[in-house]
Amino acid sequence: MVQANDTLLEVQGLKKYFPIQQGFLRKTVGYIKAVDDVNLTIKKGETLGVVGESGCGKTTMGRCLIRLYEPTDGKILLHVENQTISVTELNRQEMHLFRRNAQIIFQDPYSSLNPRMNLLETIGEPLLVNGIARGRDLEERVKEVVTQVGLRVEHLRRFPHSFSGGQRQRIGIARALVVHPKLIVADEPVSALDVSIQAQILNLLEDLQAKFNLTYIFISHNMAVVRYISDRIAVMYAGKLVELGTKHELLSHPKHPYTELLLAAVPRTVDRLRGQRTVTPGEPPDLGNLPKGCVFHPRCKYARDICKVEEPKLRALRPDCHVSCHFAEELDLQGIDTPARVSVPMAGVR
Ligand SMILES: Nc1ncnc2c1ncn2[C@@H]1O[C@H](COP(=O)(O)OP(=O)(O)OP(=O)(O)O)[C@@H](O)[C@H]1O
Ligand code: SF4
Ligand SMILES: [Mg+2]
Questions:
Q1: CB of residue 216 inside a 6 A radius of ligand 2
Q2: Which atom of ligand 2 is nearest to the CA of 257?
């Protein structure tokens, strides 16, 4: 049982539906259910990996948690500085407090930086807009974080085009870190990088987490990356959480057939981040027209009649293992070996 003071973020019944509009009058004819009734608790200092195939709603969920998207429904509570912020009902003052505590790192280090802002302006902007620092104080804080992420203070007046992909992602990390947040949503932070650079950035994120007691929600389509970085893993399918558990248990004893399918695509012999997109057989569902019953049933080799009519709810099998499958107790699913510490490929380049 999570103690209240261990909890950083609580997500209750989170939904994000995008309207499907048609015709000259752009009439709403349905909804893409990108995030559909997600419930989660995130503990202070942990890394929750969020994994699932393309289009399952990972980014939409991350953006809702950080209030870049307005949720359609649900509650998000952030416990910081001896108070609870209701993220879905922020007033102006609370928005500043929230932004100081919750930040995001984007996937694409090329398009996420403004080409007309130099390093000092890029990293200093969150301090300025949130009224945290300005002038010399701002510059000192930027210099400090630039060093912490492995960039050089001599480059403060340089523009993004003069940095490599890995350096740009360090800039993105510095921009998130400069306000001293508690929570960072990292949305595919290494997917756009070369394999050797991926390892450096993952190591940097781990070092920063240890140093500043950061909590990460780490979104990736790549199970090998999630396997390396996470303490717990949430598996998403068609906008829903289908399994949530500790890394070791979920990888070695998956309880949902979709998790088993994802794990079957992870390279077995060497822990490589190569392999990139996890390819799973079968077609992902249309989020605007989901199948009845269990959303996974058209691809599930264990499906029975009840699966076509009754939707399984996410439920606790044990305190740290939640799954949405009618037959979770009786299925004997295939996991993968999980050594105590998974190595990062090319860790020598750290
Ligand atoms: N702004 C938007 N307007 C309409 N539909 C959207 C919007 N953003 C996302 N979607 C739809 O919501 C669904 C989930 O998209 P999302 O980007 O969250 O998936 P994802 O899991 O992050 O995928 P990927 O691994 O490719 O990044 C998709 O069907 C997508 O087309
Ligand atoms: S509920 Fe049925 S269809 Fe859904 S994952 Fe479980 S066995 Fe498969
Ligand atoms: Mg995404």
A1: no
A2: 5
Number of structural domains (the chain) is 2
Residue with the two structure tokens 């203070």: 153
188 & 254 share domain? yes
The response to whether residue 18 sits with its C-beta less than 6 Å from ligand 1 reads: yes
Do 193 and 283 lie in one domain? The reply is yes
- Which amino acid, residue 235? V
- Nearest protein CA to atom 27 of ligand 1, as residue: 54
Task: Report the percentage of the chain scoring pLDDT > 70.
Answer: 91
Cα(187) to centroid of ligand 3, in Å? 7
C-alpha neighbours within 13 Å on the C-beta side of residue 239: 23
Residue 37 lies in a domain: no
pLDDT (tens digit per residue) in 217-275: 999 999 989 999 999 999 999 999 999 999 999 999 999 999 999 999 876 544 444 44
Backbone torsion region of residue 26, taken as left when φ is above 0, otherwise alpha when ψ lies between -120 and 50, otherwise beta:
left
Report if residue 142 sits inside a domain: yes
Which tokens hold the place of 4?
Answer: 């209240």
Residues 220 and 123 in one domain: no
Q: Is 58 in the pocket of ligand 1 (CB under 6 A)?
A: yes
CB 322 within 8 A of CB 316: yes
Counting atoms of ligand 1 from 1, which one is nearest the CA of 239? Answer: 14
Based on the fold, state whether residues 197 and 63 are members of the same structural domain.
Answer: yes
Which residue's CA is minimally distant from atom 3 of ligand 1? 18
The atom number, within ligand 2, closest to the CA of 307 reads 2
Confidence label for 81 from pLDDT (cuts 50, 70 and 90)? confident
Which residue carries 């499958």 as its tokens? 325
Domain span at residue 220?
46-105+181-339
